[in-house]
Amino acid sequence: MNVIFIWGKKMKKIIFNITVLMCFTTLFLANAQAQTTSGSDSRSAFAAIEAQGYNYLSSLTIEIIGIGTSGSGVGYGDLNGDGVIDSSDYILLRRFILGIISSINNITAADLNGDGNIDSTDVILLRRYIMEIIRVFPVESMAPTPTPIPTQAPTPTVDPNAKLVALTFDDGPHAQLTPLVLDKLDKHGVPATFFVIGQQINSSTSAVMKRIADSGHEIGNHSWEHQNMNNMSAQAIKESIQKTNRAIFEHTGQTPKFFRPPFLSTNSAMFSSIDLVFAGGVTANDWDQSTTAQQRASAILNGVRDGSIVLLHDVQPLPHPTPEALDIIIPELKRQGYEFVTVSDLFRLKGVLINPSDTKMYNSVP
């Protein structure tokens, strides 16, 4: 029996080594073809790698060492955390997009264009990187230099007769995009309120949430998933708000006082189920990628009055020039005599009670 067992183990090892050798041979030949071809030929070569890789993975659950060129590249694109960006990362991402697997441990590394979404665009970028068509992922060129020490926003004026405005930002947090806005707020020394999406608060954005809070900014609730709540049950609405509140408190110690409904859509069930004050604001269509920084700034400057809440986004697909628009908006409003405050301070300084029982959405105060 021992002889049979040892022989069986040896045979398994031989079969495994032969299979690995076949993997390397297939990948080497396909890589050589990709290096000497272009356009559709290169894509065909990669398709062969992909097809072969799926066959081997499904039969032996071994990990393919692909044709990545980065070697020690850890970070974006390295979805399995092995220090190499290769076809195993590509297969992992494809399986996630197709719904074959429900999660990736290093999910932050999959957002290769920095738009806050994991989709087919990221698959294409990873494929182009492995084929050496591109050398750097778009998200790597947009990552800001982090502020080492959060800049505490100045204490707002106590003069209720001053002209006041509250800057607010939606759809964060995001590890790369939100700091672009925070850097501008630091630069100009103004506070703001961030309406965050609960499911985006995680280990990859925890440092951003801490920076928001430590810098003196306020945090509001923008729902758990950013889906239209008009068709949700009262219980589902409450769960969305409560989960988001818990995530915010866990990472910052703040308890939100304000809620911004997704798509600014409201109904009676929402007002009766959500124990927060609803905040809208003056918008700039900054969810439209075709608008420039100047167009966004002009929309805000033309719409602001004393007591206005300004509604912008720290997170949207690129190009997203809202951070650049702040370099126009903030100095001009300061020149006009405005002081910037959080939404809570806007209510306080305008003498308006923060009353969760209100059945209205505030675009300005009073």
Structure description:
The chain starts with a helix and ends with a strand. It is built from 12 helices and 9 strands. Helix 1 (2-36) packs antiparallel against helix 2, helix 2 (40-60) packs across helix 3 (87-97) and helix 3 packs antiparallel against helix 4 (120-130). With 366 residues, it is of the alpha/beta class. The strands form 2 sheets. Strands 1, 2, 3, 6, 7 and 8 form a 6-stranded parallel beta sheet that branches.
Largest sheet: 6 strands, parallel
Report the helical percentage: 40-55%
Overall average pLDDT = 80
Unreliable stretches covering 5 or more consecutive residues: 1-7, 12-21, 23-74
**What class do helices, strands and sheet pairing give?**
alpha/beta
Shape: globular
Count of β-strands = 9
- Spatial extent as radius of gyration: 26 Å
N- and C-termini, Cα separation? 87 Å
So how many helices? Answer: 12
H-E order:
HHHHHEHEHEHEHEEHEHEHE
Q: How large is the share of residues in beta strands?
A: 5-15%
In terms of quaternary structure, what is this?
Answer: single chain
